[in-house]
Specification:
With 460 residues, the protein is an alpha+beta fold. It is built from 13 helices and 18 strands. Strands 1-2-6-3-7-17 form a 6-stranded mixed beta sheet, sandwiched between helices. Strands 11-13-9-14 form a 4-stranded antiparallel beta sheet, with helices on one face. Strands 4-5-18 form a 3-stranded antiparallel beta sheet. Helix 1 runs antiparallel to helix 13. It is globular. The protein binds ligand BES and manganese (II) ion (MN). The site of ligand BES has 16 residues, from helix 4.
């Protein structure tokens, strides 16, 4: 493969255009396209425009920005390879997570800086860098007239808030999005020298629980002791959702969970990702989780329940003696195959009915939620990608079920019947969703080379 001149020319084209590519990347990172915060809705529009322009300048056709109820979807295509060549649907999300907590950033989240091998900015790794990895690979092949596959592009601006518009969009544009498979670079690698194929993702069910006590905040001296404090009630409810062994106590929660087979456990153990790795990545001295499972088993194949935020009472400076009238918690569950958001919603409501004290009122609201997905690691395009990774890294890729979620993957399969090739060049230490997110540039460049190999081989 490597002695092929056209392929080598494409790789040369990438190297010689690198600086120009990199400058564009910086421009993209400067747009604070935070989907969770409605104050950034204009920035989201800007990022969509930026991508659409980028596709047009690359010579892609039919570039369009489709509005949705919330944030737009950018579409484009290149169908010049002809009908005897495969059509790859390239997926990405141009939105990013909020940068908070701001004071922990050593540089501005939207003022990208290069620090040695690292490019530091919100979205550098998750996933503006991965979007551009795909586009730079395509441009490199185009530059030497070696792009022999058809392409379609779908970029959304709502992935980090659970892709609330994606199902409707897929339903309404089934014909437009018809392709042989999806290339999704929103997953990551196990380590710098361990290119990775992800063949499963957990789903996510997201809830807000509201507890209401008195109808206004009360003086805690005049009224303390005679009303059930809603913060206390919610804290107790949350505390009861897991037992001391890390097992989730919602009624029937594990009934639909498919047990890990002995073979799967052996496979996971072979990955050599031990508990030490998780201690290093998190900075904790002792891990906590579901008893009887290793960390890697928990992350890939077991469901979780976590508090993502809790709000009640006075949080400003100094004391304020108050009994809050309300409390709210954001609770999310990572789901494994066979569990559905609907099912865990019912289980959460059943738990609340059984345990909420009668002195408070409560309600559970479900935010955008999506099921898990598993794919066939032997799918032909996945195997083509695996060969491309090996070509560049010199080692066979690792196959892994990942703990994160990418909502579109299960919907692509269910609504369009389309498989996804899931990989990416994000490293576990990239601090995605955390302060000081960064991209490891040498890994990213290798990833671009692998994507060039992949698209080239597909066109052969
Ligand atoms: N890119 C991540 C998911 C990911 C990271 C998968 C690393 C595999 C390896 C994605 O952007 C993400 O964070 N998704 C959210 C989705 C949620 C809001 C529905 C997540 O997992 O929290
Ligand atoms: Mn992402």
């Amino acid at each position: 493969m490597t002695n092929n001149t056209q392929l080598n020319k494409a790789i040369d084209a990438f190297q010689s255009n690198y600086q120009g590519h990199f400058n564009k990347f910086i421009d993209f990172l400067k747009i604070p396209s935070i989907s969770a915060d409605s104050q950034n809705s204009e920035d989201i529009q800007k990022a969509a425009q930026w991508l659409a322009n980028y596709l047009r300048n690359m010579g892609m056709d039919a570039v369009q920005i489709f509005p949705t109820k919330r944030y737009p979807i950018v579409y484009g295509e290149y169908l010049k390879a002809g009908s005897n060549k495969p059509t790859v649907l390239i997926y990405g999300h141009y939105d990013v997570q909020p940068p908070d907590p701001m004071n922990e950033w050593k540089s501005g989240p939207f003022d990208p800086i290069v620090n040695g091998d690292l490019l530091v900015a919100r979205g550098a790794s998750d996933m503006k860098g991965q979007i551009l990895a795909g586009l730079y690979a395509i441009e490199s092949l185009l530059a030497v007239d070696a792009l022999n596959v058809n392409l379609k592009f779908i970029y959304e601006g709502e992935e980090e808030i659970g892709s609330p518009s994606i199902v409707d969009f897929l339903r309404d544009h089934t014909a437009l999005l018809k392709s042989d498979f999806v290339l999704n670079l929103d997953a990551g690698m196990v380590g710098e020298n361990a290119p990775t194929i992800v063949y499963g993702l957990r789903g996510l069910a997201y809830f807000e629980i509201y507890v209401q006590g008195p109808d206004h905040d009360l003086h805690s001296g005049l009224f303390g002791g005679v009303v059930y404090n809603p913060a206390q009630a919610l804290a107790e409810l949350i505390a009861g959702m897991k037992d001391k062994n890390g097992r989730i106590t919602l009624p029937g929660f594990y009934d639909s969970v498919i047990p890990l087979s002995e073979d799967e456990r052996k496979e996971l153990a072979r990955l050599n990702i031990d508990d030490e790795f998780y201690k290093e990545q998190t900075g904790v001295e002792k891990l906590f989780g579901e008893a009887g499972y290793t960390a890697i088993e928990q992350v890939g194949a077991r469901p979780t329940l976590d508090v993502n935020g809790f709000k009640s009472g006075y949080l400003g400076e100094g004391p304020k003696t108050v009994i809050p009238s309300t409390a709210m918690a954001k609770i999310s569950m990572r789901l494994v195959p066979n569990q559905t958001p609907q099912l865990v919603n019912e289980q959460l409501n059943a738990y609340m009915k059984a345990h909420a004290p009668e002195e408070v009122k409560w309600k559970v609201i479900q935010l955008s939620s999506d099921p898990a997905s598993v794919a066939d690691p032997n799918y032909f395009a996945t195997q083509t990608f695996a060969r491309a990774l090996k070509e560049v890294w010199g080692v066979d890729p690792i196959y892994k079920r990942e703990g994160g979620s990418i909502p579109i993957v299960s919907h692509m399969k269910n609504f369009l019947g389309t498989e996804s090739v899931l990989s990416g060049f994000c490293l576990p230490g990239d601090l995605i969703h955390s302060p000081n997110e960064h991209l490891h540039l040498p890994t990213w460049k290798k990833g671009i080379l692998a994507t060039i190999h992949f698209l080239y081989e597909l066109g052969e």
